[in-house]
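Batch 3, record 17
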Amino acid sequence: MTMETTPQTGTAASSLSAGGASGGASVRLDGLTRRFGTVRALDGLSLNIAPGELVALLGPSGCGKTTALRLVAGFDFPDAGAVLIDGTDISRIPAAKRGMGMVFQSYSLFPNMPALDNVAFGLRMRKIGGTERRQRAAELLDMVGLSAQAKQYPHQLSGGQQQRVALARALAIEPRVLLLDEPLSALDAKVRLQLREQIRTLQQRLGTTTLFVTHDQEEALSMADRVGVMNKGQLEQIDAPDELYARPATAFVAEFVGVMNRIPGVLESPEAVRVLDVVVPVKGSSSSVAGSSMVDVLVRPEGLIVDVTENGNGIVTTRTFLGSVTRLGVLLSGDVRIRVDKPSTVAASIPPGTSVSVTLPSAPVLVAPPAS
Amino acid sequence: MAPVTRPVINPVPGARRSFPLFKAGLWRWVILIVAGMYFLLPLYAAIRFAGIKAYGDLIGASGFTSALWLSVRLAIITTLITLALMLPTTVYVHLKLPGLRRLLESLTILPIVIPPVVLATGLLQVAPASLKNTPYILALEYVVLAMPFAYRTIDAGLRALDLKTITEASSSLGAGWTRTLTQVVLPNLTTALLAATVLTVAMVLGEYTISSLALYTTFPVWLVTNDQSSATVTVAGSVFALFITWLVLLIITVAGTRRGRRTGRQVSLFTVARQDNRG
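Prediction for the assembled complex:
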């Protein structure tokens, strides 16, 4: 399988204007490789993060995103490649000397210390005096909105509060890079949304370069300046969220980010595919499906044209109201099920059971080997 | 964390009023009374038999103080060596070699399976000559015997802790190994360490076989020897020992619950034992 890796030097991608006091460092991952036994958890990962930028690594479990984060944090060391912060190779420096702020999925607060002492811990390790230390810790607790909980122990705090304390603790040391390892995954939906916004606002205000690892595409797309999609230890594509959604470079990215339909088609030539009785150009190259003329064409639910007709090629089976759009489930001939998004006002007149004709605009499409 | 499983209380009002005792916990009481008798009757008999005067005689009995003092010294030395060996080992295995946890667990069970006689003779073969003629050689043997207790309590304490993430968090905040251990890991293990200490001390204070084989008069050996001359004083001695042990257990449990209330984890001797069952 060939993979297109496009590590941009993301200077333009950083939407940051604030440039806060701590100032972000630049991060460069250079051909990072990490093997566990015979498994290549990370296979030559290269990536540049601009100062103050928030980059999310997105991928299914086992894709290597957490391994990458741990190599940057210094909890693990690469078999090949290097981690560079502001141009300096830190690959062999132990975690305690890297000055990275880390937030874990499991909160990881010290159970024997109240919230304030947890936040002050990193400052204590840096030999900062008692008064100043407590003052700065109190400021950070205030920043995450937990001044009132300063004296409470971790077990007295809710999950969301614990994670905010953990965030304050990581930021207290004015980290060169903030590393977030699935920080929202253990929280319930409502708290997750609030904390997502809070993290992003704080990160932009402080201008801290941030690497964020998640398996949740919504989280990655809504928070990050750029999202890197990972698969099998490699970076498939890294781009701004809207680019990633609109112009996925590979079939894997296309299907991992957002909802994607698979419609069987036949390659007429390496550059054109016949699908739903029309011939459309193939985006990029069809080399990933070399050797077979049978392919699946990948189309977003909003990328299909649907008209109500007698004896069309499909029949509406389900209708789901999603707010401004309504998602129609359509059964095509050949037992192919697809999803189509229509404005809710239009969809109101297309109840289940309606016969429709489904076709494609002539825009280039991605193709993938047929799903078995 | 209730020690006794609570019966499900019927939410329908009035249903509970009919026979509360019979419905809720008749068997609980029967079991409690029968089991209680099993422990309390012999104790009552011992106290009756010894009489008040025997406790006074106990202090003056020949050999009592020196035997007790020897046992106390051995208990202290054994505890120190055991903790110094088992704590770093268990922490290290948890963090770096989690695959070896099962093996270590089986290893620490060995002293229970191997008869003390074998251990005693074996150790005598390999012990340095300078130790062979002092009672402190017993401490070395007791360390082996204490291993299962120490390992299991420390292991349970560590498992309740999410050790890996906590040590990683600590090191990312700039703490080296020493400070992570002393300021993050140890403060969260105090209850487990106290429990390990109590179990070790109780074991040393009660150990008879090895010390009598090695011909040293520890407290239990003195009890048996003295029994031949003055039975009442001996029984008074064992009751005395029992109460001391209870007192220590009580202190640990109280300290454990108070700490638990503060940090949210109710770890005491008994919860440690229960967590063990999870394997």
